[in-house]
Records
---
Amino acid sequence: MTLFTPEDLLRYLYKESSPDLTVAIEAALKEDWMLREKLQVLRSSADGLDKIVVAPRMEVIQRVMNYARMTAVQEPESVSHP
């Protein structure tokens, strides 16, 4: 029985493993239910890694707003003519 590291399983999951490693993992998955469970856990965890976050953190927005407040140019008051 070959022991596979979590890194080996991640490479397999993302189809980045070598052909030899892929064959070895697939053969082991047929026989080893614990390995199948580990792979399933990694699959579940990896689902969250594939999602793209498109919103900036609130801290970043706040810093931009604070900077804008500090550097804002005040418009001159209009001069009233009699």
---
Amino acid sequence: MYRWFRTTLFSLFAVWFGGLTFYALVVVPTGQRILGSHRAQGFVTRDVTSSWNLLGAVVIVLLWFDVISHRAKMDRVRRSIVILALLTLAQIALFVLHPWLDALLDASAGNVLDARRFYDRHRLYLWTTAAVWGLSVAHLHATMLGTSTVVRRP
């Protein structure tokens, strides 16, 4: 059962993390080119990030379950817990920042209501997303690839 759980978790993690990476590196630049503007692509991204954040929350809950399942050897999972705690906080920040950013958009008209405030908030959202990405790499390295001291189950 544990192997099935771990395989499912790794697959969901791959969709979430890989999706973010592919979206940032390929979809956003392509969308900007095809749609003709950052603004048009931004309104697509606005909807996509809601789904991505929800998937991230599910993955993080499952990652916590995975780390906590090693509680008998808690001294061996401290690094994973610290990384996962930071990842959780960053993901929560994205949930808080998204509606704060949305408040400056008129989605029906495709307009930014206050460009200066929007871009300041958007920059914070992008840095937080980058933190999620980096912490995901750290967590992947520390636990899922078995390079930490987390005890692997047979």
---
Amino acid sequence: MQEKIGIAAGQIWKMLSGAKGPVNITDIPKKTKLSSQVAYQGLGWLAREGKVEYQQKGRSIYVCLSSAECCV
């Protein structure tokens, strides 16, 4: 399962790197074609590594690559 989550984290990173701005957290499973459970675990993986940042706008949560990751 850990390998599956790591692969999901890579897919999410790639999707976020191509996004023009922050992505609504609820759109990530749809955009990556991952199940919600695996997508959110992948996001947790990226967050633990400091690769993503979260922003709350009203009742919605958005995620984007951290500033250190945008220049990679």
